[in-house]
């Protein structure tokens, strides 16, 4: 019998709790005093339920009492009961009633099927997402809750707008209007650490790694892979679209003093070809096409790594390697690869590289800024990216108004 429940009214500070004595009809009282709030928030707004259960053990006639409390979507007091049999009974009751789900990690087949969506979720890097966005990533809120990869936030935003002068027009609706459940607008907190470990374990199974180590929020070590007879350090990285994030990764990787070129597996299909001296390969590009198990093609991974490593190591001219969706890397002899984000940056260095390779390295400023809103080449970049570009890669030429690559 339910003897208490708590309903959130938009935030943790705005909530209402209804308690009844054993034997009273809590449902009738809720309809009487909280009907409006229940219609607005629905079942998703209930944050706590307390249930009183009477039971007897097989070997005795005495009636025992068991209090079970469920908070949020996955928290309960089941494990707080000292009696092992009481814990088991409470757990089975909650599962049978559908109040709480059996919490368990994803099995191998589930992790395989959900890997593309989990990679997108991981790459976003957001701590809180709505149920609607999770659904758009191709993931199930119920499955993520069951695997403890997300949890429902106790604080939920509510926005009410009332503008003066609003007019109400009543007429027949000529088309269907899509309906959304309250779950679509419910905020869920992402268990980032557990999500990263789940993805890493899935990849480790595919690639036979045994040495997963989280190194930072954006970078994890997966282990080593033999490629061309040499051990190659393999990493998992996310957020490879911003210069700030890429610069932080470069610094982390440079401090590791690797003897060989490392391999970075990107969670997103959008990534530069190189970060420092490391080859970047988006995970999705080395999956078996059309394979229902989404197995990683190890031969394709090795071939792609070897091809990109040799292209960078034996470079004899300036070149822009595009990585897809307006990302890429600029490479030239005796300089570390420069990650580029955006079509403007790619075009800027392509013009300089073409001139450099043709033997006439000077390019007029008007050509470099063509198609941009910048008035000077320096204005094409900003912040630390500007400093890095013009300190290490680009300089003003002798001819007035021209620029060239340093080299």
Name the beta content range. 15-25%
- Give the overall shape, derived from the CA principal axes: elongated
Unreliable segments of 5+ consecutive residues: none
| Percentage of residues in helical conformation | 25-40%
> How many helices in DSSP terms?
12
Overall pLDDT confidence: 82
CA gyration radius, whole angstroms: 29 Å
Compute the separation of the termini in Å: 79 Å
Number of strands: 20
Main pleated-sheet profile: 6 strands, mixed
Q: Please give the order of strands in the largest beta sheet.
A: 9-10-11-12-14-13
Structural class: alpha+beta
Structural notes for this entry:
The chain is of the alpha+beta class and 407 residues long. The protein has a domain at 2-97. 32% of the residues lie in helices and 24% in strands. It has a six-stranded mixed β-sheet. Strand 11, helix 8 (243-254) and strand 12 form a beta-alpha-beta unit. Helix 4 crosses helix 7 (192-207). The longest helix is centred in the N-terminal third of the chain and has 17 residues, at 108-124. It is elongated, with a radius of gyration of 29 Å. The model has no long low-confidence stretch (mean pLDDT 82).
């Amino acid at each position: 019998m339910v003897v208490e429940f708590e309903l959130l009214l938009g935030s943790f500070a705005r909530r209402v709790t209804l308690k009844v004595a054993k034997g009273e009809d809590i449902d009738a009282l809720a309809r009487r005093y909280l009907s409006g709030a229940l219609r607005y928030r629905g079942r998703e707004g209930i944050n706590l339920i307390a249930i009183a259960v009477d039971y007897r053990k097989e070997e005795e006639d005495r009636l025992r009492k068991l209090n079970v409390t469920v908070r949020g979507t996955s928290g309960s007091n089941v494990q707080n009961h000292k009696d092992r049999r009481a814990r088991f009974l409470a757990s089975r009751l909650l599962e049978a009633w559908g109040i709480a789900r059996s919490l368990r990690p994803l099995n191998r087949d589930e992790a395989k099927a959900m890997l593309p969506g989990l990679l997108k979720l991981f790459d976003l890097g957001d701590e809180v997402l709505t149920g609607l966005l999770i659904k758009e990533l191709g993931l199930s809120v119920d499955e993520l809750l069951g695997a403890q990869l997300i949890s429902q936030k106790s604080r939920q935003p509510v926005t009410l707008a009332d503008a003066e002068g609003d007019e109400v027009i009543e007429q027949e609706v000529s088309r269907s209007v899509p309906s959304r459940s309250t779950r679509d607008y419910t905020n869920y907190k992402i268990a980032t650490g557990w999500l990263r470990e789940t993805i890493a374990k899935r990849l480790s199974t595919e690639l036979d790694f045994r040495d997963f180590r989280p190194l930072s929020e954006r970078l994890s070590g997966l282990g080593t892979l033999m490629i061309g007879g040499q051990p190659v350090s393999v990493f998992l990285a996310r957020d490879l679209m911003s210069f700030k994030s890429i610069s932080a990764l470069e610094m982390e990787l440079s401090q590791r003093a690797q003897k060989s070129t490392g391999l970075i597996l990107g969670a997103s299909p959008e990534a530069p070809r190189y970060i420092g001296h490391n080859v970047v390969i988006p995970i999705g590009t080395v999956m078996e096409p059309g394979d229902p198990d989404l197995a990683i093609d190890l031969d394709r991974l090795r071939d792609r790594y070897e091809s990109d490593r040799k292209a960078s190591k034996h470079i004899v001219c300036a070149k822009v390697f595009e990585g897809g969706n307006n990302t890429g890397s600029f490479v030239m002899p005796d300089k570390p690869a420069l990650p580029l984000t955006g079509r403007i940056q790619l075009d800027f260095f392509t013009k300089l590289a073409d001139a450099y390779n043709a033997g006439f390295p000077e390019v007029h400023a008007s050509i470099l800024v063509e198609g941009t809103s910048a008035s000077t080449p320096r204005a094409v970049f900003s912040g630390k990216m500007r400093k890095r570009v013009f300190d290490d890669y680009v300089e003003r030429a002798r001819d007035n108004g021209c620029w060239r690559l340093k080299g």
